[in-house]
Amino acid sequence: MNPDPVHPSHSVSTSPAGEADDCAQRLSALLDGELDSEACRALVERLRHDEEACRTWALLNCVGDAMRSADVATFHSAGFVARVSAALEREPTVLAPAALPQRSTVRRWLLPGAGAAVAAAVLIAVGLPSRQASSPDATIAKALPVPTATVVAAPVPVIDRSPQLERYLAAHRELAEPTLMPHSTPYVRTSGAVLMQEKR
Amino acid sequence: MSERDADWQLVERVQRGDKRAFDLLVAKYQRKLFRLLSRLIRDPAETEDVAQEAFIKAYRALPNFRGESAFYTWLYRIAINTAKNYLVAQGRRAPTQTETEIEDAENFEDGDSLRTEDTPDRMLMSKQVAEAVNRAIERLPEELRTAIVLRELEGLSYDEIAVSMNCPIGTVRSRIFRAREAVAEELRPLLETNKDRRW
């Protein structure tokens, strides 16, 4: 492929005239959709304060219209863009709802797994002491490294119960099988007992 | 990249809060919109008011534009509805024949199927514009003429033109710009895009 024999030096220039020329050439490329988004952003930014660039954009668009249809070009109204722009200044800036960032597949799979792991750790931390107390494997379990979890103990509510009810619960506790949630059992029973008392 | 992609690039900038990018779209489509609306609303001053209202409505609606259609098709539809509402509010209505033609014209980029009812002034100006374009194109070196014709009239991308003309894309870009610059110089006196006006 041959370099342009007509204008070989128009691509890069550092002089003010050359810079304006380069800007106009980029506007021409933008018009054709041949500019990448970063260059597009820079060019639109430049148009904020470069009136010559604005005129060039308008004129380049006129050229295309005039070439395709002379009739369309006759409908050019000088100053119309400025009037619309002024009217838009009074409008709130529009913003399209941004697309939600895509979560990575790994994270989507990890989250339920992590939740299950936390739940399992809590169950082990809560249920293990009572099981260890009654299980024949307690010595083995003690030998195994137990995952440590920092659990902030909630303050145990003080329940004002009658001595008679305390003796009744103690008797039941001795007879009852250890469960996975042994610490919750007294409260369940107390609630049940209170309900029964209220029914009576 | 197609013209639709080029518009989408600007639309996305507007959707991110860049009002200036919308000015570029207004500058690009104002003439096509004026011509379309002038078929419904004869008075040029009213046409311009309705066009301005249509552009503002389009700006407000732009967050909901997802690019299912080309930007100009979407814009034309808004403009036609704005014009119809304007005529109803004025106690007027669009001529039935023109209405049908305008609906059909939505499928054409320039709405060339529309019936023309130009004034003698506009016909004269149209003739002058055509002559200016022809004059400028005839004076262009062959390379520039081919490049601009392939781009503006045939709608080829820079890649396609580069292949067709057996030259680098940078050269295509330069040639198209030089050709536009030459045609623009011929058109400038006719289009009032003088140095006193920003746009």
Structural notes for this entry:
The complex is a heterodimer of chains A (200) and B (199). Chain A is mainly alpha-helical and 200 residues long. With 199 residues, chain B is mainly alpha-helical. Chain B has 9 helices and no strands. The model of chain B has no long low-confidence stretch (mean pLDDT 86). At the A-B interface, α1, α2, α3, α4 and α5 of A face α1, α2, α3, α6 and α7 of B.
Features:
heterodimer, A: 200 residues, mainly alpha, 9 helices, 0% strand, B: 199 residues
pLDDT < 50 runs, ≥5 residues of chain B: none
The count of DSSP E runs of length 2 or more, i.e. the number of strands of chain A, is 0
Oligomer: heterodimer
Mean pLDDT over all positions of chain A: 68
Which structural category fits the helices and strands of chain A?
Answer: mainly alpha
Low-confidence stretches of chain A: 1-12, 99-105, 133-144, 146-154
Q: Structural class, judged by helices and strands of chain B?
A: mainly alpha
List the helices and strands and how they pair.
The complex is a heterodimer of chains A (200) and B (199).
Chain A: H1 16-31, H2 37-47, H3 51-68, H4 70-73, H5 80-89, H6 105-134, H7 138-143, H8 163-175, H9 185-199
Chain B: H1 3-15, H2 19-38, H3 44-61, H4 71-89, H5 96-105, H6 120-139, H7 142-153, H8 158-165, H9 169-191
Helix pairs in contact in B: 1-2, 2-3, 2-4, 3-4, 6-9, 7-9, 8-9
What is the structure about, briefly put?
The complex is a heterodimer of chains A (about 200) and B (about 200). By secondary structure, chain A is mainly α. Chain A contains 9 helices and no strands.
